[in-house]
């Protein structure tokens, strides 16, 4: 794909769509080619703001555009399933924002369509694609902190005032918006050989979860303690602790550095994040590579990985009694 400009269609015009448009503007071989909104006016305004050539007043029109190589779904969680399904059935490759869907059943149906129709499908959980993921893994695997035994991670933003965060019909709640990151952080660095899970959540008056703590016990005795909140502000740190030292990751949502400390709490070294446009570029590059190779999923986050995390979140919500979008 070196000589081809990879054309991305952005479905939605919210703040996360802004971020993707800015990302694509900084990439050499990818372009924000089209945008779609529920109204032509919104789409035109977005297109003018980011110098996007094409704009559409319906999502279906964007999916029909033969020049679009990849559709980036940037709408609220509650709409991911229907919009991704529509694009896949029209033969369009899709990069769908996290949380991928409301629940695992929806995710399963989308993945089945992707695999049956041989159409590319990926989840845009950006931390999975960034170079820092491999850099942190390499540090852990080097043995510099000894045997890793405990992991902690938190992600908290006071964002409950936004309707999509508290409305169950928009798949609100801390888990799908913030908790998904700490679950992925644990999954990336401690794997998925989980023996048991215990958790607790605080609910908002609308019935969604607004704060939660999650503890994962692994079959080999390791433990992960995770937390997220829509009420508080936190340091967003991830810490991997071993028998000989520990690693502190700055911002599990988009790691900017990691610092290694030895047994005596002395700083061994700090490694900074490689230069970024926004950090979103890596998921686009991954999609470009996979599509050019005829794959229907990226190597960094396969369909089985999507299903594992979605089932994990389903189990947690079932324990809490949190139902979204008219779930039974």
Quick structural overview:
By secondary structure, the chain is α/β, with parallel strands linked by helices. The protein is built from 10 helices and 14 strands.
Helix content: 25-40%
Strand content: 25-35%
The residue-averaged pLDDT reads 97
Order of helices and strands: EHEHEHEHEHEHEHHEEEEEEEHH
- The N- to C-terminal Cα distance equals 45 Å
Explain what the structure shows:
The chain has helices at about 15-25, 40-50, 60-65, 75-90, 105-115, 130-140, 165, 175-190, 280-290, 305-320; strands at about 5-10, 30-35, 55, 70-75, 95, 120-125, 150-155, 195-205, 210-220, 225-230, 240, 245-250, 255-260, 265-270. It has about 325 residues and is α/β, with parallel strands linked by helices. The strands form two sheets. The protein has an eight-stranded mixed sheet with strand order 8-9-10-7-11-12-13-14, covered by helices on one side. Helix 4 packs parallel to helix 5. The longest helix has 18 residues, at about 305-320.
Strand and helix layout:
Elements lengths: L5 E6 L3 H11 L4 E7 L3 H11 L3 E3 L2 H6 L5 E4 L3 H13 L4 E4 L6 H14 L3 E4 L6 H11 L6 E9 L6 H4 L7 H17 L3 E10 L5 E10 L4 E7 L8 E5 L2 E6 L6 E6 L4 E6 L8 H12 L10 H18 L8
Helix pairs in contact: 4-5, 5-10
């Amino acid at each position: 794909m070196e000589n081809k400009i990879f054309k991305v269609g952005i479905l939605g015009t919210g703040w996360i769509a802004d971020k993707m448009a800015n990302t694509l503007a900084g990439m050499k071989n990818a372009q924000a080619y089209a945008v779609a909104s529920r109204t032509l006016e919104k789409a035109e305004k977005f297109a003018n703001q980011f110098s996007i050539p094409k704009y559409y007043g319906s999502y279906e029109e964007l999916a029909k555009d033969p020049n679009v190589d990849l559709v980036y779904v940037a709408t609220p969680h509650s709409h991911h399933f229907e919009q991704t399904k529509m694009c896949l059935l029209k033969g369009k490759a899709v990069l769908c924002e996290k949380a991928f869907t409301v629940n695992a059943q929806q995710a399963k149906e989308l993945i089945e369509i992707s695999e049956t129709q041989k159409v590319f499908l990926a989840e845009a959980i950006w931390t999975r694609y960034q170079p820092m993921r491999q850099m942190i893994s390499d540090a852990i695997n080097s043995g510099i902190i000894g045997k890793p035994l405990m992991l902690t991670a938190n992600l908290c933003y006071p964002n409950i005032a936004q309707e999509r965060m508290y409305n169950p019909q928009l798949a609100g709640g801390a888990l799908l918006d913030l908790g998904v990151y700490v679950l992925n952080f644990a999954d990336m660095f401690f794997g998925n050989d989980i023996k048991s899970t215990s958790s607790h959540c605080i609910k908002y008056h609308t019935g969604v979860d607004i704060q939660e703590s999650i503890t994962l016990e692994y079959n080999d005795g390791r433990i992960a303690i995770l937390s997220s909140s829509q009420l508080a502000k936190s340091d967003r740190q991830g810490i991997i602790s071993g028998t000989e030292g520990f690693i502190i990751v700055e911002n599990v949502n988009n790691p900017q550095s990691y610092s290694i400390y030895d047994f005596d709490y002395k700083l061994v070294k700090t490694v900074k994040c490689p230069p970024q446009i926004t950090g979103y570029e890596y998921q686009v590059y991954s999609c470009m590579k996979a599509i050019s190779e005829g794959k229907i999923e990226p190597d960094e986050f396969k369909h089985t990985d999507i299903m594992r995390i979605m089932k994990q979140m389903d189990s947690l919500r079932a324990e809490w009694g949190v139902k979204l979008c008219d779930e039974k």
